[in-house]
Structure formats: C-alpha cells, structure tokens
Amino acid sequence: MALKNYDAIVNDIQDNLGSNSTDFTDALMLKWVPQGLDELSRYSPHIVREVFPTTSLSKELENSEIKALLWIVALEFRTGKTDRQWRNFTRHYNTQVSMEIDFFPSDVDTGIDTDEALTAGETDIDVDADATDDIPVGTIIRIENELYYVTATGTTLTVVPGYGRSTATTHVTNTDIYIPELAYLYCAKTHKVPVVATIAGAATADYDAGVLTINVDGLTSTGTIEAGTTFTIASDGTTTHYTLLEDTVLTGGAGDFVFTPALAEDILENVVVTCDNSTLTPALETLLIDLVVARAGLSVALKFIQAIPKSGRDPFRDYRKSSLENLAIVMQKLEAEARHYQQEYTIQPRS
Q1: Which residue of 16, 90, 126, 284 has the lowest C-beta tally within 10 Å?
Q2: In this structure, which topology does domain 194-276 adopt according to CATH?
Q3: H/E run at residue 108
C-alpha cells in the first residue's frame, strides 16, 4: 500500500470534516497536521539509528544536534555480538548521554600518520604508508578532534571532513590517525510528512560514495523540505533511506540535501532522488487523519459556544460531543499502538 502525500492526507481530513472552506482551510491544516504528528509520535514514534563515534576515555555522547528527538530508546555499544548489547544510559536534558559502563571507550591507533599539513575542509589526505588494510573504505577516522569518513583508501585517503557534527579544522603534518569506537543510539523522533508538492527530483552532478551533501533539482519551485524527511536514490543498490539533517530551502525547484548516513554508492548526474511521502505506516496514517479530524472538530466547536440553541439543536454541544467521541476512539487506538511499539530490551550488565 503506497503511503499518501501531504495533500492527499489533507483532502481526507477535509472530506471527513465535511466541505467547509471557512473552518477547515488548507492554511489551518498547516497548523493542525504538524500538531497531530507531534501527538501521534508520542505514542508511536519514528525510530532512527544514529551513529556516534565515541570520544576516547569518555563515557559521554553529545546529542544536542539530533533533529526532532523525543527520547532515546536504546543504546548499543561494542556491537557485533549475537545478542544485541543494549546498555544502560542516563540522558542529561537534551544535550548529553552518559553510557553506564565500567570501562572507557578507546581509539585504535592505525599506525598510519598524515604526510601533509591539512587545511580546514581537506578532502584528500596524503598518508605515510599504504592504508588499504588499516583504514578500509567506510571507516570513520579521527585526526586530533576532527572526524572524517573515508571514501577511498591507499597512500592518499579521500574523505568527508567534519563528519559526525565535528568541526573541520587545520592539522599539522605527521599527525596520528585513529579509529574511534562507535556507539549506536536508537532515537524516537517525530514522524514527518513533507508539505512540498513535488518530492521527486534529480541529482545535479555526479557524486562519490561517502558524501553527506548533494544538490537536487526538479522539485517544487519554492518551499521547505523539513529536517527528518527521508529519501531514496534510484540507482542505489543498497536501498538506503537517507535522512535530512537540515531543512532544505528550495529555490527554483532546487536545493541542497544534507543527510545521514553518508552516500552508500557513487551516483551519476540526473539520477532520480525521491523523498518518501512520510515516515508513517499505513495504520498510523489512518490514525493521523482520524486524530486531526477529532482535534479540528473540537477546535471549530468553540466558535458556537455562545450560539443560541434553535429548534432543539445546539451546534456547540453537537460538534463537541461528536468530536469527543471520535477522539476517545482514536486515543484508544493510539494507546494500543503504544503497547505494540513498546518492547523489552535485554540490558547488559555494566561489566
């Protein structure tokens, strides 16, 4: 079952509420649909895995830049075991997570050093030995405090600088190259339904695997595709769903997609790039429509609060009663969905 786009969802809501161009306008839907998504997501959120390179000798993870974060579901550290290694953790406000482990993460020294002074934003790094075995493609490396994603290896590393929200900076020659340990945060996020009308475009150039930004055109002439929106690339054999890290503001039907994870494969100019209609499931899509219908009905009932009942009819009472009944049904379904979403995780002991 194909998911509906934003316009189709709005049309369904308006059809359920009845034809009324004054009370249930498209402009009001721009307020009510996001509010509905926020409420629904607290019962059944969109779960996204975020990859975090750890800091050597620190149990702290900085998470302040995770977009649309509601809460952290689970944390995985030192993966590769048959049983998933879910770890206890403490979240400090919306900015930091402490891993409750009895050991400290450590960086692995690759034995490879830089063979040049690096400028900020450097994408090709000369090294002092062949790094094919020690730093394979797809590795995240650390040079001082900056992270890089490696897209090609050998005596020169092709990299994406400033990876994982680290700051691109300069580095002196003969600097050690480390591989940090990785932690995985499974994050509950607010669902997204893109508002823009045309969500299929084309890459405007060739791009190499490992990049985190591509330019796409052929989209709606103006508008914003919100951070958290997911998209696919037609030629990508891995079928990866990429997630926008920043809002994409469109100009002339084009805009930069800044995303995670890094591009899995090389892509060619004009390959089709398609945003997903939403992060919802078909069941949640129906619940969203029903929820917004009920909330919108309650909202419009207030305009009749001082109306004088006529011929035994009371518009305020009737709107309110009907909407409350609809809302009660929806909330029961959301509670059931929340129980379905909740699952037990085997938390590993600290040692």
Answers
A1: 90
A2: Elongation Factor Tu (Ef-tu); domain 3 (2.40.30)
A3: strand 108-113
